[in-house]
Amino acid sequence: MSTSIDIKSPVKAAVKVKRETLGVWIEIPCVDKVGTCTYDDLCVHSIPANRTCPKTFTDNDVPCRCPIPKGTYTIDPSIELQVEMYNYFSAYSGKYWAHLSLSEEGVNLITCYEVNFVIEDHKPKTINDIPFVELI
């Protein structure tokens, strides 16, 4: 990501998510702020100031909360992210496509991203094993 401006609250985000089911891409509706949703201020959903940013972010000097200073930020697109999905994780397994657009107060477009990713069920051996999301 490269930005010539400081990104600060409020940052409106429009997210569209689709899942491949039997060869057909089906849009995932917004349920409990997950899926195809619009967020009035993405900054309020960032990592809280009292928590450490994920190692992938800190290793690459990428901010994980607002404000984001102007600059260029890069994370390897083949990263694996751990997510906490305790119930019915296998129900979420599959191929996904997502499009994200960010704008200042819903007016000035900041950036757009498109990503394909796979959620895999690794059948945890214990309750402490956390499945992961792999970006492809």
Automatic annotation (TrEMBL):
SUPFAM superfamilies, alphabetically?
Ganglioside M2 (gm2) activator
Question: What GO terms fall under cellular component here?
Answer: cytoplasmic side of plasma membrane
Q: Which Gene3D superfamilies match?
A: Ganglioside GM2 activator
Q: Which GO terms describe its molecular function?
A: enzyme activator activity; lipid transporter activity
Q: Name one GO biological process term.
A: ganglioside catabolic process
Q: Where does the signal peptide begin and end?
A: none
Domain of life, source organism:
Eukaryota
Q: Which UniProt keywords apply?
A: Signal
The protein's name in its UniProt record: MD-2-related lipid-recognition domain-containing protein
